[in-house]
Write a structure and sequence with these properties.
Blueprint: H1 8-24, H2 40-52, H3 56-69, H4 76-89, H5 93-106, H6 113-126, H7 131-135, H8 146-161, H9 168-195, H10 199-212, H11 218-232, H12 236-249, H13 254-262, H14 265-268
Helix pairs in contact: 2-3, 3-4, 4-5, 4-6, 5-6, 6-8, 6-9, 8-9, 9-10, 9-11, 10-11, 11-12
């Protein structure tokens, strides 16, 4: 059986058709582009009107079109700030964080750059919080806390670099929650190691909580784990030191009282 070949003249016609189709955009002609012929101001105004109506998905398309068509126009900086907010309100948290990061790199000296840092942290804070997490008693400390860690870092940068920022008050409140969440996660891991009799790992995790999450109520639990882990490791000076901190700072805590009840009182005092 012989193989059929395409005549040269027919191949040339097909190639020309493909090239023309690619240049003219066969899959979507300019007539289908609703932004064709619009000025930068018109696209920007349309995006802001959509924002005012809370049509965030539509606003995103408008501001993205503005970026693509007029990347160096006079409205681009404000459009990028609007994009951060629109992505966030549309619950596109990774896109909001990426847009905030892009704004920070493009406009590091902008008087509004603190807003970008705040929104970056807020996006990481909100990422992964589903409908069920809002309405069901899910222990977030048991889940992947990568986003929580990132949010804590973002808010820390905001507060350190912009101490007078109006967004700091809210950022600090969220950091309290995040600090407790991250501390609880470390406690969960330390308790897991205790159950597995991996006492060195448990003591290290608990020590990390004491050193990095001061002010969290989970510091008390961490000290208690340190006392137990060091005792089981026959590291009496370390156990006594942790118990002394408990005695001086949290003498009425249930953790301290239980430890005293388990051991001879003279051992700790």
């Amino acid at each position: 059986m012989t193989r059929r070949t395409i005549p040269c003249y027919l191949f040339s016609c097909l190639l020309a058709a493909v090239l023309v189709c690619g240049l003219s955009g066969c899959t979507g002609s300019k007539k289908d582009d609703k932004y064709a012929g619009m000025t930068a101001y018109e696209i920007f105004s349309q995006g802001e009107q959509q924002m005012a109506k809370k049509s965030y998905s539509s606003a995103i398309k408008s501001f993205e079109a503005l970026e693509a068509r007029y990347p160096f126009g006079p409205y681009i900086e404000q459009a990028q700030m609007n994009l951060i907010y629109a992505y966030y309100r549309d619950k596109a948290y990774p896109s909001a964080a990426a847009a905030a990061d892009r704004y920070i790199h493009l406009y590091p000296r902008s008087p509004h750059v603190d807003y970008a840092y705040y929104m970056k942290g807020l996006s990481s804070y909100s990422r992964g919080r589903t409908f069920f997490q809002y309405f069901l008693p899910i222990d977030l400390s048991q889940r992947d806390l990568t986003s929580a860690t990132q949010a804590f870092q973002d808010f820390t940068i905001l507060i350190n670099r912009f101490p007078e920022s109006p967004y700091n008050k809210d950022a600090r409140q969220r950091m309290i929650y995040l600090r407790n969440l991250l501390a609880q996660h470390e406690i969960n891991v330390a308790e897991f190691y205790m159950r597995r009799r991996a006492y060195v790992a448990a003591a290290n995790r608990a020590s990390y909580v004491v050193r990095h999450y001061q002010g969290s109520p989970h510091v008390i639990e961490a000290l208690g784990i340190m006392v137990q882990a060091y005792t089981l490791l026959n590291m009496k000076p370390e156990a006594d030191a942790a118990m002394l901190v408990l005695k001086k700072n949290y003498p009425n805590s249930s953790v301290y009282q239980k430890l005293v009840g388990k051991q001879q009182k003279k051992h700790w005092l």
